[in-house]
Write a structure and sequence with these properties.
Strand order of the largest sheet: 1-2-3-4
Radius of gyration: 19 Å
Number of strands: 10
């Protein structure tokens, strides 16, 4: 199906699976927390160009109330179950202009290691090889990550992949004027360890204070 502007169709809408997933997340997972999606699709003449439109939400200049924000984020993580039980995401996502690693993995350790490796690889492509950074990368992947993350998924322990925003900070969260409730936007979604979404919060202690 295409949105037609005479005489040629300009936008192709996504397939039925995409629409059902977006509708499900909108209605059941994040309805109280994010602007409602209105339309999305792909350029007919260039499949690398896409668009996404959402409702306009008038927001204040203030950060949302912390307890209300954490309650809604917890609800997002509780309801946002990975569709295949794996860590990753259905499509590539961006953090600003930087592509994020989203390939599917069965374990959190494998996904996190691959994601960190992708960051080191991108740094080397942009800045050139650096022996010190290469040693840091090897130590991180071979020692740090296994020691910290492997115990979370051994000895009968298991992590359930959950839908996370991925980039929550002061610039991506606010208060809805109409409802006085928290609103988040500009996400870098992945199915991950639910506490992963707190990393940018911790760097930005204003939201948590």
């Amino acid at each position: 199906m295409a949105i037609t502007v005479d005489p040629e169709p300009v936008w192709d809408k996504p397939n039925e699976v995409d629409e059902k997933w977006i509708q499900y997340v909108d209605e059941n997972v994040a309805a109280k927390l994010v602007p409602r999606p209105v339309a999305w699709g792909t350029f007919v003449q260039d499949s690398d160009i896409h668009f996404f439109l959402c409702e306009f939400v008038e927001m204040t200049d203030d950060l949302p109330e912390v307890q209300a924000s954490m309650k809604l984020l917890a609800e997002l993580h509780k309801k946002g179950v990975s569709p295949n039980g794996k860590f990753g995401f259905q499509v590539p996502t961006l953090q600003g202009t930087i592509p994020q690693y989203t390939n599917w993995h069965n374990s959190w350790e494998d996904f996190f290691s691959s994601s960190i490796k992708a960051v080191f690889d991108m740094e080397e492509q942009m800045q050139g090889p650096d022996p010190e950074v290469q040693l840091l990368c090897a130590a991180t992947l071979e020692k740090v990550v296994p020691r910290l993350l492997r115990p979370l998924e051994t000895g009968g322990r298991k992590i359930q992949p959950r839908l996370i925003h991925g980039d929550i900070w002061d610039g991506n969260t606010s208060t809805n004027v109409a409802t006085n409730s928290p609103v988040i936007y500009d996400a870098t979604c992945i199915y991950a360890h639910n506490e992963c979404t707190l990393l940018s919060d911790i760097r930005n202690t204003t939201l948590l204070d």
